[in-house]
Structures are given as C-alpha cells and as structure tokens.
C-alpha cells in the first residue's frame, strides 16, 4: 500500500471511532548545550495527535506467581502524522503526563499508526 492510502484508511478508522478517540499531545523535550555554572535549559515541543485507548493488561499471567509489584502499563493506538513517537517522549492526556515506554509501528513503516505503552 502507498503511504497516502494507509494515511486515509487510518484516518477513516479514527474518524469512525467517534467518542472513543481522545485528542492528546506528545511532548518532546530537548536539552540545550550545557554551560558550566549556568542552569540547564530544557525546551519542549508539543505535537497534537489522536489516541484510541485499548484494554490495558491487568495483573499477571497464569505463569507468574507472587504479588504484582507495580501498576500495569496503559496500551493505546496513536494516530500521529507529524512525527514518529519514541520511548521517552511524554504523552499528555487531560493535563496528566505519562512517559512512553514502548512504541511499535503498526502500518508497515508508513509512520501514521503506532501502538504505545505508557505509564
């Protein structure tokens, strides 16, 4: 498939999902060259994307034993046409920031649809 076809199909899916799609922001931070004796300068770039939440993993698998030590990850689909998200980017949902832990491309490299795991 061509990138434009994939972009159109993904756009149609997100448009048909209606209320399930949440507009969110990806925040990418960058640190300027540090000058000793001066405070660190951090800049943020904010990009608007669409998020489609999925059912997050709950608890542990049947193979695991013992208590669950930390909360499970949130898993969602992300429609992002202007950038490619990477682990370490921040995802802002309704004023709350989460860190992307894992990003997987789901569109054969077209750079439009991603599965993201965040916490």
The averaged pLDDT comes out at 87
What low-confidence regions span 5 or more consecutive residues with pLDDT below 50? none
Helices and strands: which structural class? mainly beta
Number of helices: 1
- Give a quick account of the main beta sheet: strands, pairing sense, barrel closure: 6 strands, antiparallel, barrel
Radius of gyration: 17 Å
In which order are the strands of the major sheet placed? 1-2-3-6-5-4
**Helical residue percent band:** 10-25%
Strand content: 35-45%
Q: Which word captures the global form?
A: globular
Strand tally is 6
The helix/strand order is HEEEEEE
In whole angstroms, the N-to-C terminal distance is 33 Å
Could you characterize what this model shows?
This protein has 119 residues and is mostly beta strands. The chain has one helix spanning 3-16, and strands spanning 21-31, 42-53, 74-79, 90-93, 96-105, 113-118. A 6-stranded antiparallel β-barrel has the order 1-2-3-6-5-4. The two termini are 33 Å apart. The model has no long low-confidence stretch (mean pLDDT 87).
Q: How would you describe this structure in keywords?
A:
single chain; 119 residues; mainly beta; six-stranded antiparallel barrel; 41% strand
